[in-house]
Amino acid sequence: MYSRQRLILTIVSIQAYSCICLAIIGKSHQWYWSYEYSDFITDSGESIDFDSYMVPESDLELGQFRLLDVDNKLIIPVDCHIRLIVTGADVLHSFAVPSLGLKLDAVPGRLNQVSFVAERSGTFYGQCSEICGVWHGFMPIVVEAISSPDFLVWVATHSESS
Question: What's the structural domain count of the chain?
Fold first, then answer.
């Protein structure tokens, strides 16, 4: 009986999300992350992609976190199924955002994936959790979950500027 109830709850929760699946590719480098939104195309015909570096301590603004804030956040819509595909460009890394329940190894030459849903808006912080070298502690991850209309505005602005 328990498994049947669990199945019903799973089906109901899946139907509650109105947004279809969004695929994001994350690629680790020494010592930053790259993201690609391959579902969206810019005016030049390329997919939306950008690098995300830690904000140096000298450039921090009031309210930003030392060693945790980045120049370009990973933006996702709330209540949307996200498929995150992670790979490594050089050495082993690990994409970890504990508040979203994410921990995924980034292995060069291999693809690793996870599906998740951000059920509330907010900013979620994480870091590379693999000892990947001397600057291991300087690979923060910031995921910002925003409403679907705001996400579409973000996509439109990045489609024009890329």
Answer: 1
Give the residue numbers spanning the domain of 66. Answer: 19-161
Q: What is the CATH number of the domain that holds 97?
A: 2.60.40.420
pLDDT, tens digit, 9 for 90 and up, residues 95-107: 999 999 999 999 9
On whether residue 39 sits in a domain, the answer given is yes
Contacts 24+ apart (CB under 8 A), 42-46: 42/158, 42/159, 42/160, 42/162, 43/159, 43/160, 43/162, 44/162, 46/162
Amino acid, res. 89: A
Q: Does residue 11 lie in a domain region? A: no
Check residue 138 and report its DSSP letter: G
- HSE at residue 107, side-chain half, CA atoms within 13 A, is 8
Is 14 a member of any domain?
A: no
Distance, in Å, from the CA atom of 162 to the CA atom of 47, rounded to the nearest integer, reads: 9
The structure's pTM equals: 0.84
DSSP output for 67-103:
TT-BSS-EEEETTEEEEEEEEESSS-EEEEEGGGTEE
The structure tokens 């590379």 sit at: 128
CA 32 to chain centre: 13
